[in-house]
Specification:
The protein has 443 residues and is an alpha+beta fold. The protein folds into 5 domains: 30 residues; 99 residues, Immunoglobulin-like; 107 residues, Immunoglobulins (Immunoglobulin-like), CATH 2.60.40; 91 residues, Sandwich (Immunoglobulin-like), CATH 2.60.40.10; 62 residues, no CATH class. The chain has 7 helices and 25 strands. Strands 11, 14, 15, 17, 18, 20, 22 and 23 form an 8-stranded mixed beta sheet that branches. Helix 4 packs antiparallel against helix 6. The longest helix is centred in the C-terminal third of the chain and has 27 residues. Bound molecules: 2-acetamido-2-deoxy-beta-D-glucopyranose (7 copies). One 2-acetamido-2-deoxy-beta-D-glucopyranose binds next to strand 7. It comes from Limulus polyphemus (Atlantic horseshoe crab). Keywords: Disulfide bond, Immunoglobulin domain, Membrane, Repeat, Signal, Transmembrane, Transmembrane helix. This is Lachesin-like isoform X1.
């Protein structure tokens, strides 16, 4: 019984001592094993990639790194074999073997094998993916484009990168790309953006085809290439649409009072930017001076022409023409300036008092509120027919009597006796208070 116990203890001691020495009684050397798989690695070009191989119980065996595709040996044990100066190795405790690849190139993309020289050999493979940020190929992309209105135009933006970049288009001013057959190619960003109208602001693809280009397409376009690897890049293309001038006149008949200042307006659209000028009935070109001010407000292809005539005299009535001329054509519009006769000042009590209050019968005429109705005369159609002159004139007079009132709180509807009544009432009230005050003072 005792001997048996001693034998058991001795056996346990042997096992323990073997354990301490890293050996087992079942075999002198335990086979090396991979502690974990070699992980796949993704890096952007130019960065450093690290592939890690973890081996347990390496013992006297050795670890090597190889390229899978070319079967070239990169490292064996602690030595770097490859001539590629970008490759290096680090290890600790003969357990973690890290392959370093500096300044990663696209050619480094592929499989890397970590191998242990057991028989048969053991190996694991990890893949290195190399991302390349997008780049726009300027030579294969559109530069600024000039096209005649009505033609088809294609804007191109070629890009490269890995993964293959997607190219999206938008207008620099944020306006939707809209209109044209190519609307069919719209991508639905609405998945992310609730507003459906926003989806029309973006077009996807290397080419932006615009059928029957119009002046509305004119502007700066941006193509943006992105593939998830920062930074995204963009390219700017200016689209210019050429078309001959067009003139639109809001008021072809303009009435003005003698001595007033009046402004005639012409709206033109043309590209390239036209030459704009005004002429009088005799064809003489009008230049800015004491009498006239010619102004233009330009907004891309739209030009707003303004001619101000100061202190209108009888000779100023008549026909004026505005001209717009560019390389593609020329057009003109005409405006007739006619005289407004103010109705007799004695016609209404209020206009009389008004004229008196400013002591000068012409002074109120050049007041802008008087002149305005002549410009903004609604119903151009009526004006153009020309049959409603008098009606129009009288309408203005009525307006002027209302709006030119220096004291609008005193409406013309008040009859003289009504006014008197108010004044009398006021006086009576005043008298009552005075009386009341004196009575209380006496008490
Ligand atoms: C690593 O990449 C390869 C090839 O791209 C793939 O087959 C494998 O499943 C990936 N392994 C892991 C752990 O993601
Ligand atoms: C390679 O790595 C070792 C240790 O990690 C380091 O001492 C050595 O400078 C590295 N060589 C290069 C070329 O980076
Ligand atoms: C423009 O494109 C449309 C449709 O793609 C085609 O029908 C038309 O002939 C083209 N016009 C020109 C001037 O190329
Ligand atoms: C755009 O037009 C070009 C020819 O100019 C054509 O090759 C291309 O397929 C068109 N793209 C689309 C999306 O219609
Ligand atoms: C109205 O115009 C005349 C000449 O055009 C000028 O002498 C007068 O001062 C103007 N009246 C007012 C109130 O500005
Ligand atoms: C015309 O009336 C406006 C107020 O409606 C006033 O501000 C302006 O000074 C007046 N102009 C003249 C010339 O009297
Ligand atoms: C002028 O006054 C009349 C009566 O007070 C009013 O019906 C009319 O709308 C006014 N007109 C304008 C242009 O203010």
């Amino acid at each position: 019984m005792n001997r048996h116990l001693i034998g058991t203890i001795a056996f346990l001691l042997i096992i323990l001592s073997n354990r301490v020495l890293g050996r087992t009684s079942y075999g002198y050397n335990k086979e090396p094993e991979f502690a974990e798989p070699v992980r796949n690695v993704t890096v952007a070009v130019g960065r450093t990639a690290q592939l890690l191989c973890v081996v347990d119980n390496l013992g006297t065996y050795r670890v090597a790194w190889l390229r899978v595709e070319s079967k070239t040996i990169l490292t064996i044990h602690q030595n770097v074999i490859t001539r590629n100066y970008r490759v290096n190795l680090s290890h600790n405790d003969h357990r973690n073997w890290v392959l370093h690849i500096r300044d990663v190139q696209e050619s480094d993309r592929g499989g890397y094998m970590c191998q242990i020289n057991t028989v048969p050999m053991k190996s694991q493979v990890g893949y290195l993916d190399v991302f390349v940020p997008p780049e726009i190929l300027g030579s294969e992309s559109s530069s600024d484009v000039l096209v005649r209105e009505g033609f088809n135009v294609t804007l191109t933006c070629r890009s490269k990168g890995y993964p293959t970049p997607t190219v999206t288009w938008r207008r620099e001013d944020g306006e939707p790309l809209a209109v044209g057959n190519w609307q069919n190619n719209m991508i639905q960003v609405s998945k992310f953006v609730e507003d459906l109208s926003l989806s029309a602001k973006v077009h996807k693809g290397a080419q932006l085809n615009i059928t029957k280009v119009s002046r509305l397409h004119m502007g700066a376009y941006l193509c943006i290439a992105s593939n998830g690897v920062p930074p995204s890049v963009s390219h700017r293309i200016i689209l210019q649409v050429h078309f001959p001038p067009l003139i639109w006149i809001p008021h072809q008949l303009v009435g003005a009072l003698l001595g007033s200042d009046i402004t005639l307006e012409c709206h033109t659209e043309a590209f390239p930017t036209p030459v704009n000028y005004w002429t009088k009935e005799d064809g003489a070109m009008i230049v800015s001076n004491m009498k006239y001010t010619c102004g233009t407000i330009e907004e891309t292809y739209k030009i707003y022409m303004k001619l101000t005539i100061r202190n209108v005299e009888p000779v100023d009535y008549g026909k004026y023409r505005c001209f717009a001329k560019n390389s593609l054509g020329e057009t003109e519009g005409s405006i007739r300036l006619y005289e407004i006769h103010i109705s007799s000042p004695n016609e209404g009590e209020l206009s009389t008092s008004f004229l008196q209050s400013v002591n000068g019968k012409k002074q109120w005429i050049n007041n802008s509120t008087v002149g305005k109705p002549a410009f903004s005369a609604e119903g151009d159609a009526d004006n153009r027919r020309g049959g409603k002159f008098n009606d129009h004139t009288r309408k203005n007079d009525r307006t002027s009597r209302n709006s030119s009132s220096s004291s609008p709180e005193l409406p013309g509807r008040f009859k003289k006796d009504q006014l008197t009544l108010i004044i009398v009432n006021g006086l009576l009230l005043g008298a009552y208070f005075l009386l009341h005050f004196e009575l209380s003072a006496v008490r």
